[in-house]
Amino acid sequence: MAPGHVAYGLRAQYGLLVAPETVMAWERGEQSPSSAELTALAGVLWCSPGELLAEPVTLREHRMARGMDPEDLARRVGLEPGAYLKMEESGRWKGNERQSAALASALKLSLAQFVAVTGKKDELDGLLRSAATTRWQAYVKPLAKLLPVPKSQLERILELLYNEYQQRMVATVSWGGGDSSTWTGDAGREYLEAISERFWSLAGGAG
């Protein structure tokens, strides 16, 4: 369908006044349709909203790919629509543990996707590195607030990450003949750099 035909369909079937130039801008990725426009566009093109989107990255894109409006998702998560929209627009999720679990379930997010859409990757990486290099027990509660993962599962994973890191450091010291400077060797650095991916694989939520 040409842009003009799509624009006509949006107007005739859904009462949306969208110019052909706007349809072309959507196609080129220069503009993004609103939730209502995306739903209508999918109807005109006989497909689902998710088929019109590239791999979703942001919270808004995941919501739109599921064909949900903000009010519906806010209700499922247990938030006021205005509070939810503020988080969606800022890219910073501030929901509690129950709301985080509800969000991940409603949008069918993997753990990696949840971390990405809530803007918490840097915070997660920092907590995981600290847990692996110091007392992991102190980081169970902060991570439970950050992620929709049961505390008992977090405890098992953090203990494993800590043990894996320590084993690499002991091996590094052994290779280095006991020189304390080797405690910051490549084996430990490489493990810490990839620790979030290791965490996602252990949690069964890599995506």
Describe the structure.
The chain is mainly alpha-helical. It contains 13 helices and no strands. It has helices at about 5-15, 20-30, 35-45, 60-65, 70-75, 80-90, 95-105, 110-115, 120-135, 140-145, 150-175, 185-195, 195-205. It is elongated. The relative contact order is 0.08. InterPro entries: Cro/C1-type_HTH, Lambda_DNA-bd_dom_sf. This is Helix-turn-helix transcriptional regulator.
Set down the secondary structure blueprint.
Blueprint: H1 3-14, H2 20-28, H3 35-45, H4 59-65, H5 70-77, H6 81-90, H7 97-107, H8 111-117, H9 121-133, H10 140-146, H11 151-175, H12 186-193, H13 195-203
Helix pairs in contact: 1-2, 1-3, 5-6, 9-11, 10-11, 11-12, 11-13
Note the main attributes of this structure.
0% strand, mainly alpha, 207 residues
> How many DSSP helices?
13
Order of helices and strands: HHHHHHHHHHHHH
Q: How much beta, percentage-wise?
A: under 5%
How many E-type strands?
0
Averaging pLDDT over every residue, what do you get?
Answer: 83
Summarize the main sheet.
none
Would you kindly provide a brief summary of this structure?
With 207 residues, the protein is mainly α. It contains 13 helices and no strands.
